[in-house]
Amino acid sequence: MNTADLHMLTGAYVLHALSPEEHGEFERHLRACPSCAQEVRELAATAGKLAAAVETTAPDGLKPRVMARIATERQEPPVVARQARRVNRLGRRAVPRLVLAACVAAAAAFGGIALWQHQQAEDARAQAQRAEQRADELTAVLAAPDAVVSGGELADGARATVVVSRSRNQAVFAASGMPEPPAGSVYQLWYDDEGAMRPAGLMDPSQTAQVLLMDGPLDGATGMGVTVEPAGGSPQPTSAPVALMSFPA
């Protein structure tokens, strides 16, 4: 492959669409070509922004919960002849009181539902703000002037790339073709502090391709690892790593 062809592979490289041979040849070219390195950072920043986009939807089961709440509100029984005579004995002034009580009960019930819905909306808004902040941080790492890229092939044909920015003290991990972990398990990322593993975030087990801002500061980490852990993650690795990658110097 000549140099002109290599200049055309920046997009495919960012999207992990190169063969292992092309990937290795392009990475060697990347170390000697500042213009391609800059284009890769810009394309990776755009891909990261798109991958981190979050759409907030109504919570699952909202309608059944609201309908169940309505079903628990007490209804007035039908008026039979004996009850009708009792109402007549109470006089007309009792009827407005019954109507008022029903209105108060309805207001309380729907007021509680409205408050719950408001809290749900606030939670969703806060979640979206956190996701947007992480997307901005991810993009900043990918676009950092000192960002360096390293990649490799994992088991089962999956590919992984890590981008490290020492100036921002952060790292970004991207993977494609990840097989689904066993039921009840999740892929967990780790910083490798010269052999001591430090938690760095969880991958979404339902996604085969992801771009993640690794949790926590880079600090003195010399590499990273990926293990399969119980859902929710572990404080320390409990399985052999499915991937170990050294951070570029």
Automatic annotation (TrEMBL):
Location of the Putative zinc-finger domain: 11-37
InterPro entries noted in UniProt: Anti-sigma-K/W_factor (IPR051474), Anti_sigma_zinc_sf (IPR041916), RskA_C (IPR018764), Znf_put (IPR027383)
Annotated TM spans: 95-116
Record's keyword terms, sorted: Cell membrane, Membrane, Transcription, Transcription regulation, Transmembrane, Transmembrane helix
Topology in the lipid bilayer: Single-pass membrane protein
Domain of life the protein comes from: Bacteria
Pfam families reported for this sequence: RskA_C (PF10099), zf-HC2 (PF13490)
Compartment annotation: Cell membrane; Membrane
Domain Anti-sigma K factor RskA C-terminal: 102-242
PANTHER family for this protein: ANTI-SIGMA-K FACTOR RSKA
Full protein name: Regulator of SigK
Organism: Streptomyces sanyensis
